[in-house]
Amino acid sequence: MSTTIRTTCPYCGVGCGVIAARPDEAGDWVVTGDPDHPANFGKLCVKGSTLMETVGLDGRLLHPEMDGRRVGWDSALDRVAEQFSATIAEHGPDSVAFYVSGQLLTEDYYVANKLMKGFIGSGNIDTNSRLCMSSTVAGHVRAFGSDTVPGCYEDIEQADLVVLVGSNAAWCHPVVFQRLLAAKTRRPELCIVVIDPRRTATAECADLHLAIRPGSDAVLFNGLAAHLKGEEAEVECGVPLEQIVTFFSWFAETEKTVTLWSQGINQSTSGTDKVDSIINCHLITGRIGRPGMGPFSLTGQPNAMGGREVGGLANMLAAHMGFDEASVDRVGRFWTAPRMATRPGLKAVDLFRAVSEGRIKALWIMATNPAVSLPEADLVRAAMAACPFVVVSDCEADTDTARLAHLRLPALAWGEKDGTVTNSERRISRQRPFLPAPGEARGDWWIISQVASRMGFGEAFAYAGPGEIFREHCRLTGFENQGSRDLDLSGLEDTDYATLAPIQWPVRQPGRGTARMFADGRFYHADRKARRVEVTPRPPAALANPEFPLILNTGRTRDQWHTMTRTGRSPRLAAHAPEPSLAIHPADAARFGLADNALARVSGRRASAVLRVALDAGQRPGEVFAPIHWTDRTASGAVVGSLIDAAVDPVSGQPELKHAPVRVEPFTAAWHGVLLSREAVELPRDIYWSKAAGQSHSIWRLAGAQGQDWPRIGRDWLGDSGEWIEFLDPNRGHYRAARLVDGRLEGVLFIFRWATDFSPDWVAAAFGRAAILGEERATLVAGAPPGGDRGSDKTVCACFQVGLSAIRAAIHDHGLTSPAEIGAMLKAGTNCGSCVPEIRAILAGESAKERAA
Ligand SMILES: Nc1nc2c(c(=O)[nH]1)N[C@H]1C(S)=C(S)[C@@H](COP(=O)(O)OP(=O)(O)OC[C@H]3O[C@@H](n4cnc5c(=O)[nH]c(N)nc54)[C@H](O)[C@@H]3O)O[C@H]1N2
Ligand SMILES: Nc1nc2c(c(=O)[nH]1)N[C@H]1C(S)=C(S)[C@@H](COP(=O)(O)OP(=O)(O)OC[C@H]3O[C@@H](n4cnc5c(=O)[nH]c(N)nc54)[C@H](O)[C@@H]3O)O[C@H]1N2
Ligand code: SF4
Ligand SMILES: [Mo]
Q1: For the chain, what is the domain count?
Q2: Are 164 and 195 in contact (CB under 8 A)?
Q3: Which residues have beta carbons under 5 A from ligand 4 (an ion)?
Q4: Which pTM value belongs to this model?
Q5: For residue 819, what are the domain limits?
Q6: Mean pLDDT, rounded, for 172-180
Q7: Which segment of 55-69, 265-279, 567-581 scores lowest on mean pLDDT?
Q8: How far apart are the CA of 301 and the centre of ligand 4, in A?
Q9: What is the SS3 string spanning 633-672?
Q10: Mean pLDDT, range 803-816, rounded to an integer
Q11: What residue ranges line ligand 3, CB within 6 angstroms?
């Protein structure tokens, strides 16, 4: 019998509806976009469409593990409860902490927060949303009196001007961005302005791109505010005056304006001020709460919003209440809490500092990888290593963070877990399980409730399932609310959880969601008015200097998610950006002796990383960009968080992750290599390596400073047994070898003298075959594919696997001039559309070449 389950994508805050279906019990599950989900109407980006490539059980944590050994749930849970209780008894409630995540479901988050703030009696629960959304939360609260996202996705389609500030939505919120582009196709007069120091894929689609000096957004928006009020203002932010004049006049003249922002604004030591400088421009013009307009923060994680709703941030309580006396009392009564926290706890950066100083002695980390994602990641690791008791709940067995845990608890992953999430437009959707719980993995809500009960709080945590938790959360949002708080889900208290359809909060009456807030002009400050916060622009905490002359900006690539624990499993997703890279302006590359595709060592004050150089004229000179996705599991040294000092916004506590002074120099290598292997390979740390997923193998790119005895090293890495086919050219320093066992290809190693983007796809394909026979074997070490040199190719369209050279050839051979024509011929860009901005850039590049020729 065929089965269809409606659920929600576990990646970005767009919150796309997903349908998982299989034809019969024996068939494979297939995911597609849910045509009825109001976030995506059937669309998915490439990450969403490859979800089934990421749900395998390889590498999953399937049993609790204590000090590296498998234990039963009872002993694991008892251990957490005992250790936390003993620490609290001896050192007080503030000596323990939870560090949680916007990738938990609302129900998980709710019980974690309830346990810490109501029963342990400390505010020490913070979340990775501190690194993500906290400046927006603080900015909202200052301006509106509540953490409210005013608008909805439809506003973006109905606007006449959409301004994206510090947002690479083309890659990070692809389906919303596609909705914007589709609206622009219908109404070409819809104008798009992108404000980002880099020429991103998003900027590629803009009518106007302001490549401002990083950190100068508040100068720009203060200038805009002055312009809107009819004052003269001098605006210096590193772009030509005409561009600023154009932007200001477009904004002033266009009633229906939406301003979208994300991490280019939030991740800053003045993030809260920047958020308010944007909101001010909407308040001055009254452009808020009405169709087609409003300030709009795009949230990152699938449940960043849900976490804010239940009080996952150390400085919030629950249900959008703060730590004022009345709220503490109200929540305490609602929970019949024995020991309410009465003041905010430590924010992420301070929390880990407290761990390093021994003030926090028991730490429970859930659904986040702080050993990679926090600034000063090197110090975070040291802090964890020194902490007397670290628990990590994760789906994966081996993450940089899990390696530092005393106790590892196996959590259910997407497809297995059950609960709700809230997307960027306040829409609550269900995540529903369709896969069986593997091994002994359990839902996070269950794990937390079990610990709570073993700490003696059983009655308050005796939940039969997530539905019960959700209803309690809804009741709390409505408890003594009477219109005083924005978050009100009382209309969902009696809802049928199993069939709950996507709905935007507040839901005050059953079945009635709310698309837009503040339509009545009433806000949540006591006087019901909004506040325009006076903002004095401040520069970033650290500027370029003679020792660290470049500014490192960090962020995301199109097809990977954070620390790659899930997207890293998909070969299709790996193709777009297989290596950790450093985008650098050609002039800077020349200045620091870096060639395209060579390796660079990038150093901060305490640590360095080795990254592949990618020349990029879209970088501003003096600034480089590196993705955040690589860890010690996937590269020899590419954790960019260890290059960044943890300077934080004084209001929000959000760290400045987009602006770190660094130094770059060539990483001089005597050899470069590519290794493909069916089995895991342990590589030494003193060489450069990075690892990517292949179909039935992994691919490592390698480089090292010293020449090697290759036949011996090859056997060390790939295994000695079986049959070896080798080719050694000592003069040129080339070595190529393949290892087969019973005719089946197990591994290959290619060594060159020079850096190369050599990508042996014919060899990769050979891993899919049962046996490689006769003459064919020689092609494995041939250094070029049978039948000629295709060279290497960069994947542009991950959905249909269309490479750069095919697109270039189609442009030349058929005189194609638009993404639509290329789509018609090659299919590239016709599924999720995420690569359309790149296709545009390729078209522009080719026509520029033609003009030059
Ligand atoms: N593919 C993919 N998508 C994702 C994620 C992922 O890991 N991969 N993660 C999700 C999460 S959790 C988040 S938070 C979002 C993040 O989504 P975004 O914020 O859109 O992504 P980032 O790449 O972090 O940064 C956005 C842009 O800020 C720019 N920027 C840096 N400094 C400044 C500045 O001073 N001013 C301005 N105006 N811009 C600046 C950067 O150049 C960058 O292009 O993405 C979500 N979506
Ligand atoms: N330099 C720099 N650093 C950054 C950023 C940046 O732009 N620049 N961005 C910051 C931002 S915005 C974010 S959001 C963070 C993200 O950073 P992290 O949260 O550290 O990154 P993830 O890889 O998403 O980690 C999630 C972990 O939870 C596990 N997991 C997934 N689902 C579940 C579940 O249901 N239960 C449990 N228990 N575990 C689960 C995954 O396997 C993974 O190990 O990075 C921040 N760090
Ligand atoms: S845009 Fe992509 S990653 Fe984001 S929710 Fe939709 S399918 Fe998932
Ligand atoms: Mo995020």
Answers
A1: 6
A2: yes
A3: 132, 300
A4: 0.95
A5: 795-852
A6: 97
A7: 567-581
A8: 5
A9: CCECCCCHHHHCCCCECCCCCCECCCCEEEEEEECCCCEE
A10: 86
A11: 9, 11-12, 14-16, 40, 44-45, 47-48, 174-175
